[in-house]
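sorry to bug you again but im stuck and you know this stuff better than me. theres a chain ive been looking at and ive put its sequence and its fold in token form underneath. id like you to explain what the token line says about the fold, in plain words if possible. anything you notice is useful, everything is just below.
___
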Amino acid sequence: MEQKNLATIGVFGGSGFYKFLDNVEEVKVETPYGAPSDNLMIGQIGEHKVAFMPRHGRNHTILPHMINYRANVWAMKYAGCERVISPCAVGSLQKHINPGDFVICDQFVDWTDGRKSTFFEGPVVHHPSPTDLYCPELRKIAIDTAKKLNIKVHETGTMTVINGPRFSTVAESKFFTNQGWDVIGMTAFPENYLVREMDMCPLNISLVTDHDCGLVGDVPPVSHHEVCRVFNENIENVKKLLFNVIENIPAKRENCICMNTSKDSQM
């Protein structure tokens, strides 16, 4: 791949988050994996060129299980991105994690099915390790920044990623809660993992929009309308956190564990 010098930081927008930057240049990218969800919107934050893409499309027409994750991530790499931030809406699986809270996830559990989840398809064999998938440098910046902004943040969290488009049954949600997992969403895998396969640094920023239905007797069933309502109520916090995180990211990436993922995983 011949990388372009369009941006160094990528941001994927999720439900309720379809526009991020003003005064953008739209760039259409064609990928070996088909069409991405939308054009890249290239803008400036501080000293960084930033590429933004709404993962569901700007009119939210692409469901989570239909997103072309490989095309989206490939487009970010092609643009020259070294770090990719993935804010998303999630449900809480634990009573101490409340709507409006932010979670900087450090682990995931893949509960999806049928998604294209790797760029490595041979003939060279790779076995990447996602033991510590998320970039430690970016996670620290996000946590420290949220605290400075007085945003309620949980410094660690395990996200259960389900296929969608349906939400969980009560029985499924209770199971996830009983495992001790923290939040539940539909897009972090394979998006964040593919970012790491491309030697870019992944960062997940989860905004809690609801308590999942497994917390029986305490919460009503979740709906997409309610998810978007709570996300919209907190969209300014999302943008404020993202802007400040990006401004605090060092211009140069040095000795990051994410940089050599493909090389270190090659057999």
Observations:
- The longest strand covers residues 201-211.
- The chain has one domain: 9-265.
- Helices lie at 69-79, 136-148, 170-178, 188-197, 224-233, 235-248, 261-265.
- Residues 235-248 form the longest helix (14 residues).
